Amino acid sequence: MATAVSPLAPSTYPDMPAIEGVAIATAEAGIKYRNRTDVLLMRFDEGTSVAGVFTTSKCPSAPVDHCRLALKAGTARALVVNSGNANAFTGKKGVATCEATAKAMAEALGCQPEEVFLASTGVIGEPLDAGKITQQIPALIAGVSGALWREAANAIMTTDTYPKVATRTVQLGDAQVTLNGIAKGAGMIAPDMATMLSFLATDAKIAPAALQALLAEAVAPSFNSVTVDSDTSTSDTLLLFATGKAGHAEVSEAADPRLQPFREALNAMLLDLARQVARDGEGARKEIQVTVSGAVSDASAKRIALSIANSPLVKTAVAGEDANWGRVVMAVGKAGEPAERDRLAIFFGDVRVAVGGERDPAYSEAEASAEMKKDEIAIRVELGLGTGRWTVYSCDLTKDYVAINGDYRS
Amino acid sequence: MATAVSPLAPSTYPDMPAIEGVAIATAEAGIKYRNRTDVLLMRFDEGTSVAGVFTTSKCPSAPVDHCRLALKAGTARALVVNSGNANAFTGKKGVATCEATAKAMAEALGCQPEEVFLASTGVIGEPLDAGKITQQIPALIAGVSGALWREAANAIMTTDTYPKVATRTVQLGDAQVTLNGIAKGAGMIAPDMATMLSFLATDAKIAPAALQALLAEAVAPSFNSVTVDSDTSTSDTLLLFATGKAGHAEVSEAADPRLQPFREALNAMLLDLARQVARDGEGARKEIQVTVSGAVSDASAKRIALSIANSPLVKTAVAGEDANWGRVVMAVGKAGEPAERDRLAIFFGDVRVAVGGERDPAYSEAEASAEMKKDEIAIRVELGLGTGRWTVYSCDLTKDYVAINGDYRS
């Protein structure tokens, strides 16, 4: 279907600088889509460390299984991604496809298959022919360039309506380091370790264990706080590659104070990419940010925020620009977390609509309605019980979501 | 909005016999709707016992709080229900409305306010004027009749497109007893004790404790296994009244073997009403029955079945008549319950679409597609791990759900 670009797409894209030690190529393998790229190669120089987090699905895709194993060594030489087919629930054929792809790329690059990371996104349950990917290997390797980050983001899209890219440059020790990232999302987005696919690379020199610690810390308030439709994918994969080319002394501990600017940049970039995913949720017309404060713990605040952000009734109310705070009350109530009806306060943006267990005496329908006309809807619930706080990022539920998903496979 | 009657509405309605000891009246109080009834009175003769189950929401409505308290005595003389306003999240005003309504009805009937049960359904957060209801009391009492069950079901509807009624007659001891029930549902339906509103009455003579045990047992596989949109209401209320007029000796224990036909009728009737609620889910065009078998426990099977039935991607696939079993795999995987990808088998109706961790080798797209054209879609997942089994009842997710809920309050 011809889906228009999300009204929440960025108005401009950043120029994506090259990262020393990273070379990129894309190709048209014709796996499912026609007249667009659907395979991505990132080639990394020797000495690249890697960290990753994956879906918590009990039915993960074959590439997720492959990456989990490959990650144990902590070094990477290549990333191969395809769109159009998730290689999930494909049995032994799916495992064989991963093995054949990793082996062919390893032979072409002169590395171990365990240094080749794989990710696939698209339809579940269809066998994926490794040959479609491996026959592109010579052209991919011949075509690599450091400057193709935007093209990389394009090649991994499925029902995304715009490519998701981000970049940051910060000081690390005595060197400037750059951090680039791409992501894809759209539907089946309720990450429980990472979103469907996101890949980051930096020229920083950070040991695998420290890199993993940084990534795990950054993913909680960003990708793990995004939900489009509460449906956690079989394929969620977030990988961070560090080529070590920046010229500073290696950092081996996540607690190293030199990492602070890098850590802040990583956290900000993951949140940036995660919000881009929310803003390009299937059919999305408005971004929703749900903040729950005053909960008994951060974990409790997160569960209540997710209950609100995943509620079809809250999401359709936002789509209808209806300041229907009664549905927020419902979603707080169903979360099963400590909450006291008569201590609740609810805000849309800066407009307090409910307080002390009933409608705010100063409630103005006009003010609330004006808030609902905005592109970004901030819903805040103050529970008045403790200091727990969390923010979750989501989007509205529109007829377009139903249209997109009522006829996706066929 | 002018919503057409659900295509899943019953083709005929049963004749609802009178229940001795129950008198019914409805009225047009103009609470929200115009030109339709919106208040229901059921008057019970002295000696009526009552059982009830309610929402587990942490933000229950004022009438739910009232009923929980009133239930302690276990006897009932009246039930007063209004539609159009849920009297939920209405603070002290909401409590006062309940007190005023119960008091006025108790005075009119010569009973205690604690013998008057209350329920409200409709918009959340708007104050409900008790006067609108109490001024109808004289007309209601003057107009009671035993034969108005269908009218009772009409008066409690909100976005329901058809009234939900059911009746059974069974032997109990040396008497025939009759069991009548009504329900309303539509949206905000993911009961965790009962659906939004359902009321049953019988002329059986059963002590309150035994009645409560029977009801609690019957609600688990019926109303507590229904989900329209995963949104648990603030107002779920299921009440069962027993007038004791049938002429048999009182039954005081739920384990009494004489109760077996009554128990079976109660279970069947709750399932009947619960399925009627699912089939009239907002925007529903197809009923979905999800059965999970081979789980490690019944509770685990239920959680996986709910994960499937609540998945927007599964529900939109059913709406699109797409045999997209990959989304079923996804929903199994995200449930967080024990499941082994390579032991899963998935059926649509009698068509096995996946087995042993991949697409069924004998998979026929034509057979699967034919299955998806039906009104009732049976999805079955066999996990191959144990003997746990559960069935959940739901409906598809259509553009009409979004349309209905994008502009409900205003």
UniProtKB/TrEMBL annotation, chains A, B:
One of its GO terms (cellular component) is cytoplasm. Its EC number is 2.3.1.35, 2.3.1.1. Its main location: cytoplasm. Pfam families: ArgJ. It catalyses: L-glutamate + acetyl-CoA = N-acetyl-L-glutamate + CoA + H(+); N(2)-acetyl-L-ornithine + L-glutamate = N-acetyl-L-glutamate + L-ornithine. Substrate binds at T158, K184, T195, E282, N405, S410. The record marks A194, T195 as: Cleavage. It is found in: Cytoplasm. HAMAP family: ArgJ. Heterotetramer of two alpha and two beta chains. Belongs to the ArgJ family. This is Arginine biosynthesis bifunctional protein ArgJ. The gene is argJ.
